[in-house]
Amino acid sequence: MSDTSNTVAFVRTETIPQMPPPAAETGAIKWMRENLFASIPNAILTLVSAYVIYSILAGVLPWIFNGVWNAQTLAECREILDGTSGACFAVLTERWPQLVFGLSYPASEYWRPSLAFVLLFFAAAPVMFFDLPRKMLIITLFYPFITYWLLWGGTVLIPILAFAGFVAGYLVYQRFVAGSFAAGFFGGVIAAMIVWYIGGFLIPDGANQNAMLRPVASRDMGGFMLNMMLGVTCVSLSIPIGIVLALGRQSSMPLIKWICVVFIEFIRGVPLITLLFVASVMLAYFFPPESSVDLFLRVVIMITMFSAAYIAEVIRGGLAALPKGQYEAADSLGLDYAQAMRLIILPQALKISIPGIVNIAVGLFKDTTLVSVISMFDIVGMIRGPILSSTDWNGVYWELLGFAALLFFVTCYGISQYSQWLERRLATDHR
Amino acid sequence: MKKTAFYGALTVAGFAASMASAATLDDVKERGVLNCGVSTGLVGFASPNANGVWEGFDVGVCRAVAAAVLGDAEAVEFVPLTTKTRFTALSAGEVDMLSRNTTWTFSRDVDLKLEFTGINYYDGQGFMVPRDLGVSSAKELDGATVCIQTGTTTELNLADYFRSNNISYEPVPIETNAEAQQQYLAGACDVYTTDASALAATRASFEAPGDHIVLPEIVSKEPLGPLVRHGDSDWGDVVRWTLNALIAAEELGVTSANIEELAAAPTGNPEVNRLLGTEGELGAMLGLDANWAVMAISAGGNYAELFEKNIGENTPIGLARGLNAQWTDGGLLYSPPFR
After folding, report:
1. Which of A72, B191, B228, B287 has the fewest C-beta atoms under 10 angstroms from its C-beta?
2. Which of B26, B82, B91, B95 is the best residue to mutate to test the A interface, defined by the most A CB atoms within 10 Å of its own CB?
């Protein structure tokens, strides 16, 4: 008597539906268990850290959110706060133009540096992101001249003349470079100098007075604008100079080699602040009182020399890291020095040097605040000098310096993120 | 390298016209602007307001000189200078005069080849303590910790003072006034010592100024005044007598309010007449217009008006006249006669 149809062994005909994992092994709890409370010491550390973070936030957040944004003086601020904890951000709103544009940049002309700042992105983009159409490089080409005109104003003839000099130099270079690089290079430099020298006489006296854009003296520029101007100018000038110095240091021609070695070692052996003092104080003795070179220009030259020396050493490191075979490969292909460098050596060496160069660029950008010791009102000089010394705001520190720190952090973090992207983008090895 | 050459060429093009300097007075007149070196920021003495216009007691002296020479109190280019750059800027001719709370000392006058043209503020080193400390005289500060800026004369003055009174102290070295305020408020030191005017300004910026007192002892002499380069006495005279005109105006009762009336016609007081140019040739002797002093006084008022407006008792700084009162009121201000 069997009823086989009903006494089949227990066999599942379908899989069990998936169960959720145990609560302790999933989601946030698992993550916390593994990462925060994996062992007793870890748990203790987690709790201590949480407490520290909590106490910091408990102090800082009310201070920020209770902040006063509208007041005319520190005393008024304190009256509004009435004993409660809170920041006095009113100093930022009241002194905003001074923090950004400096003491005496004419208020009606604020659009000019703002426009120059916006254009900076368009000019920098094709250089920084090489997937963009190459035609955009035209903006980059014109950018220095347009910006000079926007920031300093005055007659448009000066930037045009400057541009004409570069064009003349380039044409002469093109004409002679086939013969020899040196002839092309020095011919180009001489041609540009001649154009500038002759052009200097063509610009009529007083052209600055009735120019379309009102002229603004370097002394009137300040605030974060000055930091940006110094940072952008010096970084973009010092990278090519640094490359030249690095190559010069490896040159087999003793004169060039020793000039580069002495320059690099001397500049690296001197603190930047000393160079700035030389720029602001000593150089004034070498010129007659009325005809001294603009202080901004003096500072740009000094900072550029300084960072160029450092960048040269970074790039030299990149050059040294290349296997000798690369140099020999270039030679065996019959490339001359310029071609070998441009096509084989430098692209690889520069790629290796990116983190170092960015490191120096970030440092340089922050070092631009040192100009406050030679009485230029960059953002830190502005805060330490005029703003803190006004009877209205004497005694506000955290808000102002925190704001300056925030601006610098945003900029430097941006530079750093870009360099990481660049490294990933250029990674051609198979790691 | 190209860029450098380019700017160099621009500079040649732009500044080729200027030539070597003649006398400073002629330079200033020709330029139409007075280059005046001021502090990069000192409460009440020199600081730009929210619109970037410089204000303050030292700034008032610059404006008075500009008004006397050029007839326009606004014709001043203020060159902010740090303590480290101020003397070289003056020597190198970047500024025509320095009005930057600079103490008149022997070595600065003689060795650095500068010429002090008078004293516009008699300062001195003082002490500030919290009221809770229960101290009413610096002589009771035995064993106190003292916040002091390093590398200044205040450090040396302090050591001298405490040694001569045979009391001990522990210095807390700090770098800047801002740092000192924070340290002092945080209780890192019992006493903060620096120039009395700066103490008053610092105290005024505190949340509760009443909790702190400035002790009566002044332990050093800090005569602050405008200065010019050695070797141009004509220009030195202009600055010196402009300052004297401001001081004399207070003594003679000439204010910016009544000056128009007094200068319109000779008054009964011959000294006022000589000062205001309605009598005599004083302006011409300086190489200026006859109404130079009228312009200088109108620029910001006489000495008392400048003082009250910028650092006086009705301002947040609230300095009393003290030593800076006229000699007739028991102070030290004493202008030589205008004759």
Report:
1. A72
2. B82
